[in-house]
């Protein structure tokens, strides 16, 4: 199989620092001409950087002989120049269209494949679709890749991992069970340290993908990625899309300049837009999570209680951008006598009128009156046995032998249209501003059971395409709507979902209430994703250590304000500190204590958020429970050598002034006790 060869040449030499519309990329003088890169890889007569097997033959052997065309596509609000490169087989009528987007301001390229049967009969089998089939070649020897765990609802969620490649080494990665970031986060930073260059890449497929990285020499790394199970023919007129991929090229002696460039790419071109601007998600506060057993989630909440809690939050001066109503508001979730709960009544998407006699709009109106948005939880894909949707729509449900759960088949056009309109109408009628979608099931076995023997992977392909259609319908119908992507906490994070949503609850490990777990999660996931949220540790805690452990661009405060155990003045202080720090996560992020064993219990964790836009930042550090070392020295990054910065300790208010050169050389941190934290604010003088 032929592969596309990429040499990361230094096309332009710039005498000044590279400036984007978002911020300044420090320590970077060279750029890749991405427009020229695209034309050299997708030009006529070129073997493109993707591949597949068609009728038993690798595409590299025939695709340059197929009919070729290139046409411009309309621009959208995300920006970038879009081109469709189409390859058509005159014999069978199969067209392979590759939609390529050039983000010249970030030296980045994205593409997605569409296979369409324009013939009169079934196509031959299409298999082993590699949406990326590419080789990176660097001037110097030495190859590493930095990536992260996905979510498993544990302390090790999003822990950073590093692979140093030797010639012949191979690393194969795939998520668990058909959710795109179960086990592995599909974001990867490839680096040639001695060449001072690399590429950050991500896969866009919210199902089962597979990626394989192979060191073909001391200075070359090949990558293939695609939907793992796809092997099928297409019927006449049938069209499918496959996974998208993105490559963001960077040149620097610091790989975190590369990951920060990628974070800025997401903010500029691959995030939810409202009125043409990147949507910044609000922070949230819940109603009454954790009521007496057997209550669970929000299954015992009533309208009167919700309104009283809103009044109480206002009385105590507790702020939020949104109020959070999670699972359990629907019919049957409080039928504890019959062993029912929120989890085994999904599919009963009718408001529990005993708890909310006037519907949820009454609560939403009160939330809006306080100047907040209203978040509501749904799990429309999973349908439990005996539920309303199970009884009403059996023809739309995918089953798995021995399971009491079903999947609402979003790959079925009628089902997808029904769910889209139903949820859209519910959002409109109940005043929902943030639609929270959960997904507490592994879909892969359901898809496999529904596949026909000669149509492997087609159920998944159409299902995931239907998911995107559903979300896009909601976002188009409601221009100000935000989507919270949960999926058991962070199991569906990929390039495609960043365009439509963020995870406000990035891991279900929040439930286990160890603040240091939250530190580990944030330390890793922030490397690639600028907007994420998490629960703030223990709902009975309102101390600075717990708050700082959950710092991110957003957070969910789960405080119970009906107990004497906590002090609402502490809650106010936590909110004030969060408001002062949250926007720093939207620009550059630097882990300062390394990328190995980031989930250990005997280490220090320290990171820096730096805003090139105003030359300010924060430095956050933690000493973990089993650590014996009361001080460390970190080398700060992002700061400029010839600028002086004033650093202020948030706890003591003591200040000191250091040059950027001094901070890069080393800045000392000291904590006398384990399970404590430091927060410094710094700003250029």
Mean of pLDDT: 93
Could you say what the CATH architecture of the domain at 4-270 is? Distorted Sandwich
Net shape = globular
Proportion in β-strands: 25-35%
Name the structural class.
alpha+beta
Could you name the CATH class of the domain at 4-270? Mainly Beta
Rg, Cα atoms, Å = 25 Å
CATH-defined topology of the domain at 4-270: Beta-galactosidase, Chain A, domain 5
Poorly predicted runs are: 1-29
Helix percentage range: 10-25%
**Main beta sheet strand tally, sense and closure:** 9 strands, antiparallel
Name of the CATH homologous superfamily of the domain at 4-270 = alpha-galactosidase from lactobacil brevis
Strand order of the biggest β-sheet: 8-9-10-11-22-18-17-14-15
Q: Distance N terminus to C terminus?
A: 57 Å
Helical region count?
A: 14
User: How many individual β-strands?
Assistant: 42
